[in-house]
Design a protein that fits this description.
Strand order of the largest sheet: 3-8-7-5-6-4
CATH superfamily of the largest domain: Glutaredoxin
Number of helices: 12
Number of domains: 2
Strand content: 5-15%
Order of helices and strands: EEHHHHEEEHHEHHHHHEEH
Oligomer: single chain
Number of strands: 8
Largest sheet: 6 strands, mixed
CATH topology of the largest domain: Glutaredoxin
Mean pLDDT: 79
CATH architecture of the largest domain: 3-Layer(aba) Sandwich
Amino acid sequence: MPVDDCTLYHAPRAARPLAPFTLVCLLAAAPGWASDASPPAASARAADSFYREGLKDVDLSGLGEAERERALAILNGNPCVCGCRYTLASCRVQDSECVRSRELAPEVVRRIRAGESDEQVLAYLRSQPIMPRPHPGVTSSSPPASPSPDPGPSPAAATAAPVLEERAYDIPTRGAPVRNPPQAPVTIVEFADFQCGFCAQSLPLLERVLSEYPGQVRLVFKHFPLDSHPQARGAALAALAAQAQDQFWLMHDRLFDSRDRLDRQGLEQIAGELGLDLERFRRDMDSDALRDRLQEDLRDGRAAEVSGTPMFYVNGRKLRVRSLAAFEQAIAQALQAPSR
């Protein structure tokens, strides 16, 4: 499967084989799909340069030195949402006609100039929908997927190119957080990491899919913290502790909005902001029961051959491309398939 990701795949320490796993960067031809195994500041293509000059239509004048460095760090450390494999800064240099980076990059600077924090600016970027488009700065063997012009499911979805792998995995979902009716005929399983920039970027897309298929599709969340994200495991335990108090989805959203404070102190602050019982939250985070739950999700992910995050499965079959059109096609195919 062609992918564009940087994955660091580790088994749990107790179960690691003798041969070490390695860092693998796969840069090929699936615009619209990206997986993350690196901190948010390095979530775009590893080959991107750090651009300080030549960002077309981006005016950094009037910023103090610290503000300028913050703006450049965000522009060089976060992917454009046009479907390319570049950061916002690189997109302004490599494809200056890109409408999305032309809108978003100056807006980042404007928000920093207006006094917004990095967290606020990143939250704004994460709220932007993924809108794939042809990108002349990217060479690939297949063109980027076009965004769906229709806000509803596309009638042509069922006849488009295949977006699901043939193999179907039996992924356990008992006890996992679920959105939409549990009895829905189509199940999307997401393996995600709370420190993953691409996971955060996928939230608007998932919201749209769930809103378009309210009675037909359910979303099941599975934890897959990557070893390359040092705070991801603690964030996963915090989400599990919140789930024990029936507040998983509130914690889920807040963690993705707060990726700059996922240390233990920050996690406890978030729990307090959400009104959780802090004493119980602390006990649960440190409990063997939740650590075992997390290990179960990791084992399930390895069994399903998860190699990076986010990774989506539609009725057990791995989604090849992350886009609205791909989800529409996969859901149409799942609804037409005979029940097993």
